[in-house]
Amino acid sequence: MAMPSALDELVAALRCLPGVGPKSAQRMAYHLLQHERRGAERLAAALTRALQTLHPCARCNNFTEAEICERCLSPQRDPTQLCVVEMPADVNVVEQSQAYRGLYYVLMGRLSPLDGVGPRELAFDRLLARASDGVVKEVILATNLTHEGEVTAHYLAEMLHARGIKVSRLARGLPLGSEIEYADAASVAQALLDRRDY
Amino acid sequence: MAMPSALDELVAALRCLPGVGPKSAQRMAYHLLQHERRGAERLAAALTRALQTLHPCARCNNFTEAEICERCLSPQRDPTQLCVVEMPADVNVVEQSQAYRGLYYVLMGRLSPLDGVGPRELAFDRLLARASDGVVKEVILATNLTHEGEVTAHYLAEMLHARGIKVSRLARGLPLGSEIEYADAASVAQALLDRRDY
Q1: A–B: how many Cβ contacts below 8 A?
Q2: Chain B CA closest to residue A20
């Protein structure tokens, strides 16, 4: 007996959210039913609409409602630069930096052989086709500075070099505002290796 | 420009979930769209169904799909004991203890004057009517052992006593398996005050 099944199903369904275990799914379900019925209705509608309308942009692979997203179609952007990131959230962060006016390509992941994610799963051939359109002059690899991100960048760099495309990588070093005393040894080592003339 | 509006709306709608801020709402939206499209579909359906079918049980105030929930109707339960808890999740925990076979009443909150939650908002009159049905012999107050839970229990005890109903409170003391050395002073004090003959 115990809980009614519409409630069980809601708790189970909430567990598809990242980082949501059984306890917090239960807490969320009760919260929605008691305090957020409007919010829950809105969420159901937003999920349905998002699933129906959002799909990968034919050019940058980011989510869009059109065939090609607004950013890829914008005449304001420099089409000779292509910045490759792992995830859509990374695009937002690069945009916020206001230091880039080129276009993007979103891998939707990173190489991770242990999880069965290889070049095929990430559709590297689509990125290579995109980068070889004759307009792109430089590919900027902005994958994460993690082990998997570095391996992904290295692999992509090899493939792009083989096609004669200029490739660059985000600078590694110490974050702005950081104090040497508290920096990790690997970042200090990298900052020394990549030191620039002053 | 930037993000398309079905995505914006999904991110905004996810923020009705407790403990979900802008960053995690965005992460959840991308996760659902990329890895959990089935899960998102299921969640939308479960939300809609739960909103349509779940409402408070006429007897215990817990969520149910029927007018009176299965537990309140069960002949296996002792109708002379009524356990008052703050939230539906508390019912589940008391059930798991396997130490109680009576019925429940769920307040759906606790007294919290600063948040504008008083006896009227918690519909104490409904609980009093429920406890005065002539069958209930004892009301066990199982509100939290927090300041607000204690105030709620105290207030309810006064009202129930005034109607000549027997009232009890969960025992306060040291948790099973705990070591005195690491116990907090308030719990030790309570355990001393409420010491039992051996």
Answers
A1: 175
A2: B28
In this predicted structure, what is the pLDDT of residue B80? 96
Q: Where are the alpha helices (DSSP H) in chain B?
A: 5-14, 22-35, 37-53, 70-73, 88-97, 124-131, 147-162, 185-193
Alpha-carbon distance of B141 to A56, in angstroms, equals 55
- From A34, which residue of chain B is nearest by alpha-carbon distance? B108
d(CA B123, CA B61): 10
H helix or E strand, kind and range, residue A161 = helix A147-162
What is the separation of C-alpha A181 from the centre of its chain, rounded to a whole number of angstroms? 32
* Residue B180: band (very low, low, confident or very high) from pLDDT cuts 50, 70, 90: confident
CB contact under 8 A, A17 and B9: no
Q: How far apart are CA A12 and CA A25, in angstroms?
A: 7
Query: Which residue shows structure tokens 């985000």?
Result: A170
In three-state secondary structure terms, B73 is: helix
Average pLDDT of chain A to the nearest whole number: 90
Tokens of A84: 């490759």
Residue from A150, A4, A49 nearest B41 by CA: A49
- Tell me yes or no: is domain A81-169 CATH 3.40.190.10: no
Distance CA A29, CA A36 (A): 10
> Which tens digits make up the pLDDT trace of B119-161?
999 989 999 999 999 999 999 999 998 889 999 999 999 999 9
DSSP state of A143: -
- Give, as one character, the DSSP assignment of residue A65: S
3-state SS, one letter per residue, for A83-133? EEECCHHHHHHHHHHCCCCEEEEECCCCCEHHHCECCCCCCHHHHHHHHCC
**Interface touch A1/B42, C-beta < 8 Å:** no
Contact call for B49 and A10, based on CB within 8 A: yes
Would you place residue B2 in the very low, low, confident or very high pLDDT band (cuts 50, 70, 90)? Answer: low
What are the boundaries of each domain within chain B? Answer: 1-10+26-53, 81-169
